[in-house]
Design goal:
With about 475 residues, the chain is mainly beta. A hairpin with a 6-residue loop joins strand 5 and strand 6.
């Protein structure tokens, strides 16, 4: 993929083709001819310098054609009328212009084979693009063109959070560990593990956590109570558990006190050593494992009208630990706004991983000045690396079977859906490049030869080339 192996190739690709033509090659200095011809053997040298810069794409008012197309029509008309002169062709553009056709006699019989080179670049945003092979979606106007697989980022599972306070008068209670009948439900304070080894029970109603959710984080928030009768010199040792299935609010009936209710297998031990002053906020450790066990109960179903959605938690003495420490917190009877509060962060479903998406890339080159039927001796496309990379690759290069390939557009499968000439060229190996390095394809002369042999090919018009990898993920 592009971002995994950190490699892109800029769309400033060029096609260089070398071909054999039947015009004599001249190496004489080019003189500008003025005046009358005194020697019939001395012919004027006329070099056409054609502006192919970006400004030539502008439309000429009243013609519906670009400046370049209008200029071509005018040049063709002049060439048809010229006689007894030497003619050459050069292009002017940025970063410079090559001599496409050296000076030669316009009326000469073309019988000798000569080597001519021509260079072409994509000239607009619609001259290159990438296509996602699975969906056929085409993207144009990117600053870089990826020749490697692309990975989607995937989607994260939905997350949510709930906060619930103790809301009922009998939903928080404390019970003396030495006296099962000593159950306090109306006190203003909740004594956590004083010298009598108290146990505290907290019940939260309407906890809307869906069954099957994954608990990410959870804690109970307590608010300190002002009470001079406390011992904070020693820590308190707390074991937090939950009730597997809520059995209602607290009272003195069997199974409804704090001490005689069942506990979850999951537990969290908490050493509370800091001092707690009035209105200090104290959060328990993460109790997500306890809540995960509670919502895994077959009866847990907040979405059903009669489904379970209440949770009960216990603060008991940690077995094997003893202390004279004591911390006091506000109860629901003392303050509704400062009653114990349960916070749960959870996730529904699971993350969807990103998918590796094979890509096809297309490149279109304008004004490829190769005459119809010329013998192609060499042709290749050269790219510029956008960033450093070291990777293995295995691609296929193909050419569109058309003498005038249209520009790309965002229609689905506008790249892969084009008709191709028979055969492909394999481009495979290991690439170790730095940003700005030139990257050149293998020899493509067989593909270009098939195009320029077409009856509808006219040198200087448009030709399309597609870079298409094999069906499968490239190595690396």
């Amino acid at each position: 993929m592009l971002r995994r192996i950190q490699n892109c190739l800029t769309p400033a690709a060029l096609l260089l083709a070398t071909c054999l033509t039947a015009a004599p090659l001249q190496a004489d200095d080019t003189d500008i001819f003025f005046g009358q011809i005194e020697n019939i053997e001395a012919r004027p040298n006329v070099l056409f310098i054609i502006d192919t810069s970006g400004s030539m794409d502008s439309t000429v008012s009243g013609t519906g054609k670009s400046r370049l197309d209008n200029m071509k029509e005018g040049m063709f008309q002049i060439l048809d009328e010229l006689n007894n002169v030497n003619v050459g062709l050069m292009r002017f553009t940025n970063p410079g212009g090559p001599v496409l056709y050296p000076l030669s006699y316009i009326n000469a019989d073309s019988g000798a084979n000569n080597v001519i080179s021509t260079l072409s670049r994509g000239s607009s945003g619609s001259d290159d693009g990438i296509e996602v092979r699975s969906s056929g979606a085409v993207t144009l106007e990117d600053e870089v063109i990826s020749l490697v697989n692309q990975s989607s980022t995937g989607t994260a599972a939905a997350t949510d959070s709930v906060q619930v306070r103790v809301s009922g008068d009998n939903d928080d209670a404390e019970q003396d560990g030495n006296d099962n009948d000593d159950l306090s439900r109306g006190s203003d304070t909740l004594d956590v593990l004083d010298e009598q080894d108290n146990s505290v029970g907290l019940r939260f109603q309407g906890v809307e956590v869906p069954r099957g959710a994954t608990i990410i984080n959870a804690f109970i928030r307590l608010v300190g109570e002002d009470d001079t009768d406390r011992d904070e010199r020693d820590p308190v040792y707390i074991r937090i558990t939950g009730e597997p299935l809520d059995s209602g609010n607290f009272d003195n009936r069997d199974g409804r006190t704090v001490r005689d209710r069942s506990r979850t297998n999951a537990s969290i031990d908490w050493i509370l050593s800091e001092n707690v002053n009035e209105d200090d906020v104290v959060d328990s450790p993460n109790i997500s494992s306890i809540i995960q066990e509670i919502i895994s109960n077959n009866n847990w179903n907040p979405e059903a009208s009669n489904g379970e959605d209440d949770m009960v938690f216990f603060f008991d003495p940690t077995p094997g630990r003893s202390s004279d420490g004591n911390r006091k917190f506000r109860s629901r009877d003392d303050s509704r706004n400062k009653a114990p509060e349960l916070t749960i962060d959870y996730r529904v479903g699971s993350d969807t991983p990103g998918e590796t998406q094979p890509l096809d890339a297309g490149f279109r080159f304008s004004d490829v000045s190769v005459p119809r039927g010329a013998q192609i001796t060499s042709a290749y496309v050269q790219f510029t690396a956008d960033r450093a990379a070291n990777f293995s690759y295995d691609w296929r290069v193909a050419a569109q079977n058309s003498g005038d390939a249209p520009a790309f557009n965002t229609t689905a499968r506008n790249i892969s859906g084009r008709s191709l000439v028979p055969g492909t060229v394999q481009w495979a190996g290991t690439m170790d490049i730095a940003a700005g390095d030139p990257v050149q394809t293998p020899e493509l002369k067989t593909l270009l030869q098939a195009v320029v042999n077409r009856g509808d090919w006219c040198g200087g018009e448009c030709r399309g080339a597609g870079s298409k990898r094999h069906w499968g993920q490239p190595a690396g």
